[in-house]
C-alpha cells in the first residue's frame, strides 16, 4: 500500500467537516460539481494533490499568501506559484465569487472523497 493511500484511509472525520458533501444527493451530482470546479486539477496525481491542497488552504485562509505559507511551512513564493498553477488548471478566476465558490466545493469533494472522485491520469 502506498503512503498516499494509507494516509487517505486512516482518517477520523468530524461530521461538521464533511456535512456539505454528505448532503449531496448522488455521486453523479458530486462528480459534476467536482469536474466543473476543478477541471484538470482533479486528475489523480501527486502534483495535482499538492496543488489542490495548496489552493484549498489558500482559499480557507482568505486568499492570504503569507498565512497560507506559514500554515503549510512553505515559502510565500511557493504558495504564489502553486496557486497560479492550480487556478490555471481550474480555469478559474478570483474575480468571480461564484467560480471561487465552485472551486471551494470541488476541492472539499476531492479532499474527502478521493480517490473515488478523481479523474484517472492520462
TrEMBL record:
Top-level taxon: Bacteria
Q: Which InterPro entries match?
A: CdaR-like_regulators, PucR_C-HTH_dom, PucR_C-HTH_sf
Q: Which Pfam families does the entry mention?
A: HTH_30 (PF13556)
Q: Give every PucR C-terminal helix-turn-helix domain span.
A: 51-109
Identify this protein by name.
PucR C-terminal helix-turn-helix domain protein
Transmembrane feature ranges: none
**Which source organism?**
Mycobacterium kansasii
Q: PANTHER family, per this entry?
A: CARBOHYDRATE DIACID REGULATOR (PTHR33744), DNA-BINDING TRANSCRIPTIONAL ACTIVATOR ADER (PTHR33744:SF1)
Amino acid at each position: 500500500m502506498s503512503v498516499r493511500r494509507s494516509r487517505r484511509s486512516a482518517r477520523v472525520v468530524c461530521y461538521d467537516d464533511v456535512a456539505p458533501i454528505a448532503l449531496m444527493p448522488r455521486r453523479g451530482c458530486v462528480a459534476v460539481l467536482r469536474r466543473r470546479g476543478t477541471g484538470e486539477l482533479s486528475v489523480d496525481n501527486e502534483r495535482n494533490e499538492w496543488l489542490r491542497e495548496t489552493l484549498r488552504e489558500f482559499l480557507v485562509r482568505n486568499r492570504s499568501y503569507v498565512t497560507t505559507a506559514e500554515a503549510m511551512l512553505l515559502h510565500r513564493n511557493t504558495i504564489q506559484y502553486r496557486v497560479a498553477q492550480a487556478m490555471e488548471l481550474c480555469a478559474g478566476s478570483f474575480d468571480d465569487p461564484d467560480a471561487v465558490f465552485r472551486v471551494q466545493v470541488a476541492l472539499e469533494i476531492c479532499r474527502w472523497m478521493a480517490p473515488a472522485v478523481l479523474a484517472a491520469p492520462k
